[in-house]
Write a structure and sequence with these properties.
Elements: E1 3-8, H1 13-25, E2 29-32, H2 43-55, E3 62-66, H3 70-76, E4 84-86, H4 90-98, E5 104-108, H5 114-126, H6 133-146
Parallel strand pairs: 1-2, 1-3, 3-5, 4-5
The chain binds D-ribose.
The site of D-ribose (RB5) has 8 residues, from helix 3.
Length: 150
């Protein structure tokens, strides 16, 4: 069974629940790291919770939703090995898997509607990394992370 980890802040609880229902109906095993209420919380806490579970190997792919998707992607990208892409169009959501081997999709509940959110999720989870020249470039991103890019 395909697995995926999901998180959001208070701005995106309803949308996260919809995404969770959609992915579950598609046969994904979904882990939800919260938040679960509309009480104000801090998106870096959620991003950190989710990213550490990808870093540990428990999951390979995640989705983070906040108001804009921007704060979540900034926080996620501070984690070694995390390549988070903030997308609000399906072309980018697909291409960031194919070319950047993104392992976290971020978007904003205050930016995209429910229909587009589901299309973003499908575009992301259905696309495969193409490797080849793209792998060379992703390795260069890792080298930047490691301070070894010439
Ligand atoms: C919360 O109000 C908001 O700042 C957050 O959801 C997100 O948009 C941050 O990037």
């Amino acid at each position: 069974m395909k697995k995926l980890i999901l998180g959001c802040d208070h701005a995106a609880v309803e949308l996260k629940n919809l995404v969770k229902e959609h992915l579950t109906a598609r046969g994904f095993e979904v882990e939800d790291v919260g938040t679960h209420t509309t009480d104000s919380c801090n998106y870096p806490d959620i991003a950190h919770k989710l990213c550490t579970k990808i870093q540990s190997g428990e999951h390979t792919m995640g989705i983070l939703i906040c108001g804009t998707g921007i704060g979540m992607s900034m926080a996620a990208n501070k984690h070694r090995g995390i390549r988070a892409a903030c997308c609000s169009d399906t072309f980018s959501a697909k291409l960031t898997r194919q070319h950047n081997d993104a392992n976290v999709l971020c978007f904003g509940a205050r930016v995209v509607g429910m229909g587009l959110a589901i299309e973003l999720v499908d575009a992301f989870v259905d696309a495969e990394f193409e490797g080849g020249k793209h792998a060379v470039r992703v390795d260069m991103i890792t080298a930047i992370e490691n301070g070894t890019l010439a």
